[in-house]
Amino acid sequence: MKDNINNARRQADEKNIQSYSRPNITQHALQYAVNYQLPSLKITCQPGVKDQIEGKNIMKALFIHIHDDFCKLNNQYNRPIGFDTWYVDKQGDLICFTSQIELFVYLWDVDHYPPKLLNTLITPVPPTHLPPQHSIIFKYVPRTISFDELLEAVSDVCQSKLLLEEMKGSMTNKSRHIRLDLTSKEETKKILNSGVFPLNGYLIEVTEFLAPPKLLICSRCNRPGHIRKECNGPFDRCKRCGMNKAQGDHIQCLIKCHHCEGEHIATDYRCPVIVKFRGELIDELKRRPELLPQNIQLFIPVEFRNGGKNFIGCQQKEHIPSPSYLHSSHTNVWPSLNQPVTQNYDDRFKQDFYDDMKKEIKLLRNDYEKLKLVFDQREKELMIKYENNKNDCISKVYTVVNEVVPIITSSLKSLHIFIEKIVKNNEDINLKNEYNILQFTIEQNLVMLNDRNDLVIEHQRATAMLNEKTNDIFRHGLELMSSNEQ
User: What is the CATH number of the domain that holds 186?
Assistant: First the structure.
């Protein structure tokens, strides 16, 4: 039984590896690799937040508390202060998201939080690191310089909140890289502009931190290149052993990659399948640098550089050179400095883009107004047709009923007279003749009743057809409405 399971698993893994041998770089994977999103900010609450209303009140109190200090530290910030979104998790804690780096950096410092808000004790749990714009790398720091020495030297230079951390993947016997996160953007620029950091007679190379491309990995099958809702896997696979998560205990299960049979989890960057996908992703980004946002660069690991640059950047537009002006009044003619440009190429490009966008929006709005006017006219026409059809149906039914009732009345009267004559039981010949006449009259009335009954049936059919036409008209109106909305 175990052999059959192992064989089935081996066949599935071989199919996985064969599928990885084909290019697997989707547009979704490329967008995920280049789009940098700030991580969430967690605020632990005691007691836990019960509902959205209580969370809303705590949020209001938080922003009232930080407003003045935040505006003082970020005097160039001209947007309202608030999160893009937030929610209350199962434990009653607040999970907050923002796309504004200034607010993220401010709330990354736990000293900016009050200990209590509206009788609720709060404990901020910020992410470990700041965004790349606030990160610096000290490269090849000698082992003779201790971590504490560098921390003390940086603390003497920088007054803002900082975090210093050794980068594990860069450690060698002689040196290592150390990452520095600073809340002050000015201090970050100052250190980067110097290019080096002096310490103990060494000039340590300083460079900006570049985040590597992110890998899109499915949480169901642990494959790179797609997300869970696009996965065709039969079940959720454990990262450790590769078996079905719903079966058995997967907390202390055997670690064995189900991609390559290696002794690591399936999403480990050491896995050949992950390495292959990572290389293909970086090669695709090298060929398509226009996918990166402006002024954003991505770090290329050493094993994927192939002798090239260590970063991928968006290709910038070429600047238009300004002409040089000469002072002809002097014998030694020197070219003057370039005249200051009030608006560079990028600004003109953005302005032209915004103007074109406004024109396009205006045209779309005019088209929308025209379509809306046509739709209103058609709607009025449909309502008029509907009223006419309805009135026609009612009129026909009323006419038929108005004609049938007198006939029935006349027939009943004739029948009454006929019965009276029969009761008298008289052998008079004249009476018999009169009886025959009455009988003939009743027969004629019955024929007329039958004819009118047929006419009622015909009118009923006509009414049904009119109702069907009315439904078709309304159906057509709904289709027009949906097409106009699109």
Answer: 3.30.70.330
